[in-house]
Amino acid sequence: MIYGAMKFSLGGSLKLAFRPWVEGIENVPTEGPAILASNHLSFSDSFFLPAVLDRKVTFIAKAEYFTSPGVKGKLTAAFFKGVGQLPVDRSGARGAGEAAIKSGIEVLERGELFGIYPEGTRSPDGRLYRGKPGGLARVALATGAPVIPVAMIDTEKVQPPGKIVPKMIRPGIRIGKPLDFTRYQGMEGDRFILRSVTDEVMYEIMKLSGQEYVDIYATAAKRQMADEKKKAEAEAKKAEGPGKGKGHGTDGPGKAEAGA
């Protein structure tokens, strides 16, 4: 009931304001379980995709969204529950992965749609990164549910990372044909099979999105970018010299030069 009301109000508002275009919506089954595996460009991805579908889509969200204190925290929790998000504690990497897998299986066993981002996090630069083999492949093989590749287009331009107010840019959603991995059921313990399933899905997402593919994890790319930024800042600070930015005392370099 809450989801229906939230979908009607939020989904209707998003479609009216941003007019997202959609291709391949007929590839989403009208009933029965299915996994929607999407690239991840923006925080708003989890809202635009459900907005254009008639069925409920359940995504995984950080537990912090559901446990923050105060009135704002309660409103945030109600909002995320209303749009079909499930809380997962990410305090432990392995525990978070197992919780997400369990939640995904439960959603699919109810005959619903489960949304997942194989990259594991938002792309830091708009490129498509290597998919993590744990969640997507294990849920698919454990349930036998078809995997539907999805490409979000230009959502990072609507709401760039760190920006609260969205830009009025028309995003797009491209939905591919379902992929059947039932031939691998019972083999979710084989890491080579998990890697193969994940790579096949990522290849289809790449074709749909037109993104440049980078064969490293997005989390590793973010760490690398952060390290490079710190290094550049340190080098810039070093290049300024020890006297840069200090006060204007009578013995300072600028005063001495002026009196020369």
From TrEMBL:
Keywords: Acyltransferase, Transferase. One of its GO terms (biological process) is phosphatidic acid biosynthetic process. Pfam families: Acyltransferase. CDD domains: LPLAT_AGPAT-like. The keyword DNA-binding does not apply. GO terms for cellular component: plasma membrane. Residues 225-260 are annotated as: Disordered. Residues 34-155 form the Phospholipid/glycerol acyltransferase domain. It comes from the Bacteria. GO terms for molecular function: 1-acylglycerol-3-phosphate O-acyltransferase activity. Residues 225-243 have a biased composition (Basic and acidic residues). Signal peptide: none annotated. PANTHER family: 1-ACYL-SN-GLYCEROL-3-PHOSPHATE ACYLTRANSFERASE. This is 1-acyl-sn-glycerol-3-phosphate acyltransferase.
